[in-house]
Design goal:
The chain has 16 helices and 18 strands. It is α/β, with parallel strands linked by helices and 499 residues long. Helix 3 links the parallel strand 3 (72-77) and strand 4 (97-102).
């Protein structure tokens, strides 16, 4: 299994707050119990010694969290809580914030040690609005320690997505192709999210590739690693040094150009000029970088690269970017196929030339790109169209996700949980049969109806709940999700739906 680099660690601060007309010992006792529940659940968090009652405590708690290197924080109302100092902490803290509150433990506390946090959380939420602070508040934000611990665990994944994006740089190579206009989204919304963008030409990439040729030891080591990954049946061993040289070029460029950012993704123009200049397809190298936590999107799809990275951060597993590609013929299915809650009309195939990492494939081998071979080599013995990693996608749970800008710079998103089925797709490329309940109408009224492109990011876990909260905290209001047949989409013909 690959080591997932290029991924932030979440260092969580647990900060208790107490209103001055309530005993601070009540918050302290409940904060200790919550910290113990987190330890029992193997959730790492620093329990701040400072409990916030007044504004000077806010400053002390911020200093304490900074000294411990915390980059996300849970504000915990052990009692009613002081809405001013508590939300001042949230406003001045430099990372994602979660707010939750203590439930009363038993009837024995009600006579004199009642915390009233349900009431206090209303005041805190109002003040968060006044300060324009976007905080994660779970569906049931008031609970006992063992009830809040899994919600805080969810928050660590949400926080990782937000921290990663705020320190991300997108490296793009080549102009976005005319025949993929859907990938030509404005970059301003990326800057609005705090993401840096560095656009380069295909000539820059070619010069980097030529420069990397001098690093012979690195090339030999990577080619050997490719050989181990592909196994003794590697179809094109002669191609591995060229692919390894390209991998060296991309990794060197990333190291030299991160600058003020901490993490990076690539969005590269991968055909048709690439093959004629470089002499191979870049797909296998793209798959290897994705396996290490560095997504490389095809066709200069910057938002696709960002979406794939968000799937990686939410799941802590490599993700992939696929075309939402083709329908599934009925004769692929066995008689008793388990469609995981989807109807036959909800099935589709996710496909790309060969950019999915081997860890996310059921089986795979180094091949050539059939469509490019027809275009560039007339269907003859492949040469420059070699270099794809092809096979069946690994079956299991998945989330289909996309963050996208409209032409007028409005961010939109969609999220759908489903399953990659263990069915032979009977086709070429990195490909699999995907089952998403209620996908057919979702495809028509969200993906088509809201003008999303053909690429979708796929997580190899169900992380829709986490991505939904992360996207909300980014300020995105338009988030499409599959709806059951009883609920119409905006603009859907009710006479057709209910007729």
């Amino acid at each position: 299994m690959n080591v997932l680099t290029n991924t932030p660690d979440v260092v969580l601060a647990l900060v208790g707050v107490s209103r001055d007309c309530f005993p601070v010992a009540l918050t302290a006792k409940r904060l200790d119990a919550l910290a113990a529940a987190l330890r029992a659940a193997k959730i790492s968090a620093y329990r701040c010694e400072t409990i916030i009652e007044k504004e000077t405590d806010t400053l002390a708690a911020l200093d304490e969290a900074a000294a411990k290197g915390c980059n996300a924080a849970v504000v915990y109302l052990g009692n009613f809580g002081p809405e001013g100092p508590a939300t001042l902490f949230a406003q001045q803290f430099w990372g994602p914030i979660m707010v939750c509150a203590a439930a009363e433990e038993s009837k024995s506390v009600l006579a004199s040690d009642r915390g009233d946090a349900l009431c206090g959380l209303l005041n805190v939420s109002y003040n968060l609005g006044l300060r324009q602070v976007s905080a994660y508040i779970p569906q049931q934000p008031v609970g006992l320690p063992e009830q809040l611990a899994p919600k805080i665990a969810d928050f660590t994944h949400i926080a990782r997505v937000l921290i990663g994006l705020s320190n991300l740089k997108v490296f793009a190579f080549g102009p976005r192709p005319q025949d993929f206009l859907a990938c030509n989204a404005p970059v301003k919304p990326l800057y609005d999210l705090g993401i840096e963008v560095m656009e380069n030409s295909e000539l820059d990439l070619y010069q980097l590739y030529k420069k990397a040729a001098r690093k012979r030891k690195d090339i030999a080591a990577i080619a050997a690693d490719m050989g181990r990954e592909l196994g003794p049946t590697c179809s094109y061993p002669d191609l591995l040094p060229r692919l390894a040289q390209f991998e060296v070029a991309l990794l060197d460029f990333m190291d030299e150009n991160l600058g003020a950012s901490s993490y990076a993704v690539f969005a590269d123009k991968c055909w048709p000029a690439f093959e004629k200049a470089f002499g191979f397809c870049p797909c296998y190298v793209n798959s290897r970088l994705a396996g290490r936590g560095i997504p490389v999107a095809c066709e200069v799809d910057m938002y696709g690269a960002v979406s794939e990275y968000m799937c990686q951060l939410a799941s802590l597993r490599p993700a992939t970017l696929l075309d939402i590609n083709n329908s599934v013929p009925a004769d692929i299915l066995p008689r008793q196929a388990d469609l995981k809650g989807a109807a036959f009309t909800d099935l589709f195939m996710g496909f790309h030339c060969g950019n999915t990492c081997s860890e996310c494939m059921k089986d795979c081998s180094l091949k050539y790109q059939l469509i490019m071979n027809r275009l560039m080599e007339g269907g003859k013995t492949p040469d420059i169209t070699r270099g794809t990693l092809e096979g069946q996608l690994r079956p299991g749970p998945t989330t289909l996700f996309r963050l996208q800008s409209t032409a007028d710079c409005e961010l939109r998103s969609y999220i759908a949980d489903g399953e990659i089925l263990d069915l032979d797709p009977c086709s070429f490329g990195g490909i699999g049969v995907v089952a998403i309940p209620n996908f057919a109408r979702f495809y028509r009224h969200v993906l088509i109806g809201r003008n999303f492109p053909h690429h979708g990011a796929f997580a190899f876990a169900k992380v829709g709940k986490l991505l939904y909260e992360a996207v909300k905290m980014l300020g995105v209001d338009s988030i499409g999700t599959p709806l059951p047949p009883t609920l119409p989409y905006e603009g859907e013909n009710p006479f057709e739906l209910f007729g």
